[in-house]
Amino acid sequence: MPTSRSYGDACGIARALDVVGERWALLVVRELLLGPQRFSDLRRALPGASSNVVADRLRELESREVVHRRKLAPPASSWVYDLTAWGRELEPIVLALGSWGVRVPLPGTPTTLSATSVLLFLRAAARPAPTAPATTCRVELDDRVWTVRTAAGQVQVEPGETSRPDACLRTDPETLNALLNDPGALDVALSGGSVVVTGDLSALRLLLRAVSAPSPTVGRPSAS
After folding, report:
1. pLDDT in tens, 65-91
2. What is the fold of 12-89?
3. How far apart are CA 176 and CA 102, in angstroms?
4. What does pTM read for this prediction?
5. Helices 173-181 and 115-125 sit at what angle, rounded to 10 degrees?
6. What does the alpha-carbon distance between residue 77 and residue 66 come to, in Å, rounded to a whole number?
7. Cβ 208 vs Cβ 180: under 8 Å
């Protein structure tokens, strides 16, 4: 059931934790940083949380005006959860927390790694050459599609299809994370079938190689 527990502390830190301090709450926020998601998407991204727990956290965050639920326009017409303007102000806080937490030892296996986590790192850490041509890549991770655009030295990531991608990549989050750590392993992944690429392979290589070092604003997921 949703909780209404409070620290009863007037400090702003304590009041913030009254809103987002429950277990799984900030991970729900993390999953929404790149755009709206359906309940089923959130449930799949957080396999360690039961459906009831995810639903409770969403209700709490919605009641606190951190998250809102809305219906997508046709033809999708599905209900999704999205961050409010106030909720989006949590982004630099969540990314800074990830940077701080990267020094914490990994939990015991098995571990999970969501597509959003890997793509947040890609967005923050990739540094394409400012003079490089703009590219658009279609990235499919665990049956969800994302569009990754590079232009003027910046990377943008958003959920959904793109009409004319330069390259298409299909893999899983763990494999993409490993390729960001070692772009030279792409050929082995292609031959082994863990990665499928169509279109301009050189555009994808440039994107992977643009991740040269962890960004100070986000913690890098550990390589699988």
Report:
1. 999 999 988 887 799 999 999 999 999
2. Arc Repressor Mutant, subunit A (1.10.10)
3. 18
4. 0.89
5. 30
6. 22
7. yes
